[in-house]
Amino acid sequence: MPIITLDYEDLEKLTGTDRDSIIDRVPMIGADIERLEEKSIDIEFFPDRPDLYSVEGVSRAMRGFMDIETGPVIYDINDSDVEISLDEDINNIRPVLACAIVRGVKFTESSIKSLMDLQESLHWGLGRDRKKVSIGVHDLSGIKPPFKYIGADPSVEFVPLDFTEPMNLADILEKHPKGTRFAHLLDGYSKYPLILDAKDQVLSFPPIINGTLTMVDKNTTDLFIDVTGLSAEVYTALNIVVAALADRGGRIESVKINYPDGESKITPDLSPEKHIISMDEVKSLVGMDFTSEEVAGHLRKMRYAASPADTNTVEIEIPPYRADILHNYDIIEDIAISVGFDNIEAIFPSTSTTGEAHPLSLLQDSIREIMVGLGYSEVMPFTLTSEKVHFDNMRRAHTEDVTPVMHPISEDQTMIRTTLLPNQLEILSLNQHHELPQRIFEVGEAIVNCANKLHLAATSIHALANFEEIREIVDSMMMERNIPYSVKPSEDPAFIEGRRVDILVNDTKVGVMGEIHPQVILNFGLGQPVVGFEINLDE
């Protein structure tokens, strides 16, 4: 889950109350306080609330939740007469585009950092690490509309951010840090996405890097924002960004997008989606009786527009920046948050049973106690993954024991994992902003040939990670469980040859341990040595 750093001064100014009151109440909207610093607070938010990935979004939500300002925030959009045209080549590469202009923003160092952090958090939360959504934020002063979004030849040159000399698109993918990290998103294309102004100056090479020409600094007041991608989340991401900038006093202006077939679209669209909920629905989930006026009041507290239609129904307008509202159940969850889960009356079930811990749960608890005692932190990743992460990134051959997802909604979730280590390397990749060493473990299920298997896996990343370290951990864990084991050389390509062994119990292979192969480390975007092990606890 994303951890957002919020500057106290910004937070107090935008919320309209003191930091102690905010710190006391913010966990109630679905957040965990990670740490309190002298000038800022780090808060972990659920991935389903990307509108809270910035100090502006948190302040907007807290003003309502603390009854400082309830009801919807109304965002006006003016016409800008700015247009951007797509060429036919882009249709097969990265065809979804949304744009906006925001004028009159007064930036400080903290507000620029907040905007950049929001951008990167949305890349992860909505964009699946830029695959589905990537965002470009540009200083408007040095560029001239109308703009063009084209499929460009790899030989086109511009000066990318963090560099001082021009590079062509092919070189950026091979030599720029952002290029090497995200080059896989453009694999197989002979042309690359590029956004140009009327003078053919490069604004952005999505989803890789912006140009130095449009870099935002404290003197920037007017912004051009482009969001490109593969799905409708592009429009939601734009709404979140422009709402955050408008909360800082920016004035939103629309952009006309012209498609190759002659059609056009105006973005952003901040019109709310309308829903109706009944008191019966609310009671069935929350378990309490409410009047329609009470429900409307709770929803206004959560920044909806809401008014009673009659005694049994409420008409609702969902804020345009809320990406998580898919069903009335999601709206009712917000009612429960407003009420306060601690204020919902507990009711004993109508039947009573006598139970005891399952032997599997007792085993898992025992393993957790051992691993925590060895200095490892537990993680619980999703069991769904992809062939690329599970096999290609691990340098392992594709196998037939996989359980595929019949109708995957994302290329990132096409199968159920058969091992745990790939998930842990993904987690390490997402947490490179934290200090080292990082040591994590999971005791969880893998699905092999449609059968559930209980596995234990652990990884450690830091500059001095080596085989001896992970061997000591396996020794300690097996000794605590009173299980004798032996080892033999392994052929697992995910590990370095000569620094990998199979784990044997009663001459049966139950796992593997060793130093992770450098290519695997690079495949996951990591920059430090990693060691790990995985054991099948069912064997």
UniProtKB/TrEMBL annotation:
<dbReference type="InterPro" id="IPR022918">
    <property type="entry name" value="Phe_tRNA_ligase_beta2_arc"/>
</dbReference>
<keyword id="KW-0067">ATP-binding</keyword>
<dbReference type="InterPro" id="IPR005147">
    <property type="entry name" value="tRNA_synthase_B5-dom"/>
</dbReference>
<keyword id="KW-0479">Metal-binding</keyword>
<feature type="binding site">
    <location>
        <position position="333"/>
    </location>
    <ligand>
        <name>Mg(2+)</name>
    </ligand>
</feature>
<dbReference type="InterPro" id="IPR005146">
    <property type="entry name" value="B3/B4_tRNA-bd"/>
</dbReference>
<feature type="domain" description="B5">
    <location>
        <begin position="270"/>
        <end position="346"/>
    </location>
</feature>
<dbReference type="InterPro" id="IPR045864">
    <property type="entry name" value="aa-tRNA-synth_II/BPL/LPL"/>
</dbReference>
<dbReference type="InterPro" id="IPR009061">
    <property type="entry name" value="DNA-bd_dom_put_sf"/>
</dbReference>
<comment type="similarity">
    <text>Belongs to the phenylalanyl-tRNA synthetase beta subunit family. Type 2 subfamily.</text>
</comment>
<dbReference type="GO" id="GO:0004826">
    <property type="term" value="F:phenylalanine-tRNA ligase activity"/>
</dbReference>
<dbReference type="Pfam" id="PF03484">
    <property type="entry name" value="B5"/>
</dbReference>
<dbReference type="GO" id="GO:0006432">
    <property type="term" value="P:phenylalanyl-tRNA aminoacylation"/>
</dbReference>
<keyword id="KW-0963">Cytoplasm</keyword>
<feature type="binding site">
    <location>
        <position position="330"/>
    </location>
    <ligand>
        <name>Mg(2+)</name>
    </ligand>
</feature>
<keyword id="KW-0460">Magnesium</keyword>
<dbReference type="InterPro" id="IPR004531">
    <property type="entry name" value="Phe-tRNA-synth_IIc_bsu_arc_euk"/>
</dbReference>
<dbReference type="InterPro" id="IPR045060">
    <property type="entry name" value="Phe-tRNA-ligase_IIc_bsu"/>
</dbReference>
<dbReference type="GO" id="GO:0009328">
    <property type="term" value="C:phenylalanine-tRNA ligase complex"/>
</dbReference>
<feature type="binding site">
    <location>
        <position position="334"/>
    </location>
    <ligand>
        <name>Mg(2+)</name>
    </ligand>
</feature>
<dbReference type="GO" id="GO:0000287">
    <property type="term" value="F:magnesium ion binding"/>
</dbReference>
<keyword id="KW-0030">Aminoacyl-tRNA synthetase</keyword>
<protein>
    <recommendedName>
        <fullName>Phenylalanine--tRNA ligase beta subunit</fullName>
        <ecNumber>6.1.1.20</ecNumber>
    </recommendedName>
</protein>
<keyword id="KW-0547">Nucleotide-binding</keyword>
<dbReference type="InterPro" id="IPR041616">
    <property type="entry name" value="PheRS_beta_core"/>
</dbReference>
<keyword id="KW-0436">Ligase</keyword>
<feature type="binding site">
    <location>
        <position position="324"/>
    </location>
    <ligand>
        <name>Mg(2+)</name>
    </ligand>
</feature>
<comment type="subunit">
    <text>Tetramer of two alpha and two beta subunits.</text>
</comment>
<dbReference type="GO" id="GO:0005524">
    <property type="term" value="F:ATP binding"/>
</dbReference>
<dbReference type="Pfam" id="PF17759">
    <property type="entry name" value="tRNA_synthFbeta"/>
</dbReference>
<dbReference type="GO" id="GO:0003723">
    <property type="term" value="F:RNA binding"/>
</dbReference>
<dbReference type="InterPro" id="IPR020825">
    <property type="entry name" value="Phe-tRNA_synthase-like_B3/B4"/>
</dbReference>
<keyword id="KW-0648">Protein biosynthesis</keyword>
